[in-house]
Write a structure and sequence with these properties.
By secondary structure, this protein is mainly alpha-helical. The chain has helices at 22-28, 39-42, 63-87, 101-109, 114-119, 142-174; strands spanning 97-98, 126-127. It is built from six helices and two strands, in the order H-H-H-E-H-H-E-H. A two-stranded antiparallel sheet has the order 1-2. Pfam families: Flg_bb_rod (PF00460).
Length: 176
């Protein structure tokens, strides 16, 4: 159904007058119900929903995406630490080190505010003194480190593949 328009032009240079019926006017502009409610009915504004300047924002990344980013960071740090262990396999007195990012992420995701906890999760190498020691005080077994390196590399590749898949879905949704 077309809007009911009436035009009036007295002279060729005169302005055109448009009159829209209520039904046509309703279709001509988008309907925003929050604009018609009173301020009291809307409730107080939530400061977390707005950025400075009055622009609202939305988190593009959810807790899962941030967790994947942190897990990739932790797996990369673990790879570097294991590489350091292999490099120091013959260094007397060197103690094996490892990065336990699984426990850190598990605790962050179980917290009251998982998104903030995952964003601030920090990983650091810790010395592992539970393994066997050689006579020279070195605690690195090259066979165990090689197997751990292969397992960690597979875990890293899996995390990157999942992250890439999720990012591709977002790019497709955006149209990029």
């Amino acid at each position: 159904m077309r809007p009911n328009l009436t035009t009036t032009a007295a002279t060729p240079g005169a302005r055109t007058k448009f009159a829209l019926t209520a039904r046509a006017c309703h279709r001509a502009r988008p309907f925003f119900p929050h604009r018609f409610r009173s301020r009291a009915a809307q409730g107080p504004p939530n400061a977390a929903d707005y950025r400075p300047g009055g622009r609202s924002h939305m988190n593009l990344f959810d807790t899962t995406q941030l967790g994947l980013q942190s897990a990739i960071s932790g797996a990369g740090m673990r790879q570097a630490t294991i590489a350091g262990n292999i490099a120091n396999a013959n260094t007397p007195g060197y103690q094996r080190k490892d990065v336990d990012f699984h426990t850190t992420l598990r605790n962050a995701l179980a917290s009251d505010t998982p998104m903030d906890a995952v964003k601030t999760a920090a990983f650091s190498p810790a010395t592992d003194t539970t393994g066997p020691m050689r006579a020279d005080g070195n605690g690195v077994d090259i066979d165990i480190e090689s197997a751990t390196m292969a397992s960690s590399a597979l875990e890293y590749e899996t995390l990157v593949a999942v992250y890439t898949g999720r990012t591709d879905v977002m790019r497709s949704a955006i149209g990029v």
